[in-house]
Design goal:
The chain is built from 17 helices and 12 strands. By secondary structure, the chain is α/β, with parallel strands linked by helices. It has a 7-stranded parallel β-sheet, sandwiched between helices. Strands 11-10-8-9-12 form a 5-stranded mixed β-sheet, covered by helices on one side. Helix 6 runs parallel beside helix 11, helix 10 crosses helix 15 and helix 15 runs parallel beside helix 17. The N and C termini lie far apart (about 55 Å).
Length: about 400
């Protein structure tokens, strides 16, 4: 029986994870569930899975949850704050940590799990985007097991040589390049001039996946794919010129590995996050995820196209930040988070997201990122500058 901590249990990845766990009660138990402010959702999850601990980042929300659970006769302890997230991630009572908190808020608890040598199911891109070098050193130093949950990186993982998988470390033997597929989001067929007037409601209506608002907007700008390029660099140790992005509107092929002998291995499946979650949970074995079998005859066709950096400037900015090195990718991520929130609040236009990120990257000198303090300092500076630009 493996004990699981879910960091971000009320988000789309957390909900999908609990769906998989519920199908295998003989294999997994839930040690801790965490959320930000979603009191009602976390209450219902606690009622169903009876975790030892529930954590809410927001203190007031934690107090509300504690009252609700006490009145329901639950024995789940309720904690609050950032340190509580770190505590449950590194606890001796948990074996697996699903890192599914969206954004920079997930960095510290995910890093704590790495330092504690946990089996980490990584769905939080920002841990690697913000501090890839530091994070990977902690994984290696403390003997943590790092398995990617993003559908693209999990697909690459499944297409690697068995030796690379067993050692939890990518050697890249015989690999020419990796190819990340992208649906292109809801605006893939729009003319650039028409993007000026798109609304938040349009941006979050992803054609293939059911995701949270922030990730949906990132998919629409293709920043999500840019963050995945950065993540792939750290996970698989390849330079940016060996990581390509290919538009694939059906989201059936989740990514590919191109080998020097001409072989291209692709991982396919229905667009459902339960597949990579189940793969990471059970690795090196396989368990039922609850996902329907892929019917290629019903799919009918698979289409591909190049990812135009002119049409998707956020993707180009991500490559530029990766090549610049240091804390440039942390600065990119921070500016993006602020700009996306401003767009969702209708403070800026969709096209201004990339403009703000570009200006923040141009105005802040990145540090080498050798310490967590440097990373967090540059992250804060980027947020302050982005907010200033938006407000003025």
């Amino acid at each position: 029986m493996q004990a699981v901590t879910l960091l971000g249990s009320t988000g789309s990845i957390g909900v999908s994870t609990l769906n998989v766990l519920a199908q295998h009660p003989e294999k997994y138990s839930v040690y801790a569930l965490t959320a930000n402010r979603s009191v009602d959702s976390l209450f219902e999850q606690c009622q169903q899975f009876n975790p030892a601990i529930a954590v809410m980042l927001d203190q007031a929300s934690a107090e509300k949850l504690a009252i609700k659970l006490k009145n329901a006769g639950s024995e789940t302890d309720v904690l609050a704050g950032e340190q509580a997230l770190v505590d449950v991630a590194e606890s001796e009572k948990t074996d697996y940590v699903m890192a599914a908190i969206v954004g920079a808020a997930g960095l510290l608890p995910t890093l704590a799990a790495a330092r504690a040598g946990k089996h980490i199911l990584l769905a939080n891109k920002e841990a690697l985007v913000m501090s890839g070098g530091l994070f990977m050193k902690e994984v290696e130093k403390n003997g943590a097991t790092l398995l990617p949950v993003d559908s693209e990186h999990n697909a690459i993982w499944q297409c690697l040589p068995v030796g690379d998988q067993q050692q939890h470390h990518f050697h890249g033997k015989g690999v020419r390049r990796i190819i990340l597929t992208a649906s292109g989001g809801p605006f893939r067929d729009y003319d650039l001039v028409d993007l000026e007037d798109v609304t938040p409601e349009q941006a979050v209506a992803h054609p293939n996946w059911s995701m949270g608002q922030k990730i949906s907007v990132d998919s629409a700008t293709m920043m999500n794919k840019g963050l995945e390029v950065i993540e792939a660099h750290w996970l698989f140790g390849l330079p940016s010129d060996k990581i390509e992005v290919l538009l694939h509107r059906q989201s059936i092929i989740h990514s590919m590995v191109d080998y020097v002998d001409g072989s291209v291995l692709a991982q396919m499946g229905n667009p459902d996050m339960r597949t990579p979650i189940a793969n990471a949970l059970a690795w090196p074995n396989r368990i039922d995820s609850g996902v329907a079998p892929l019917d290629l005859a019903a799919v009918g066709r698979l289409d591909f196209a190049a990812a135009d950096h002119g049409h998707f400037p956020c993707l180009a900015l991500a490559y530029q930040a990766l090549e610049a090195g240091g804390t440039s990718t942390a600065i990119l991520n921070a500016a993006n988070e602020v700009a996306v929130e401003a767009f969702l609040n209708k403070q800026i236009k969709f096209t201004q997201i990339a403009q703000i990120i570009e200006q923040v990257l141009a105005k802040i000198t990145a540090s080498n990122g050798d310490s967590l303090e440097q990373v967090l300092a540059d992250d804060m500076q980027a947020r302050e500058l982005a907010n200033t630009m938006i407000n003025t």
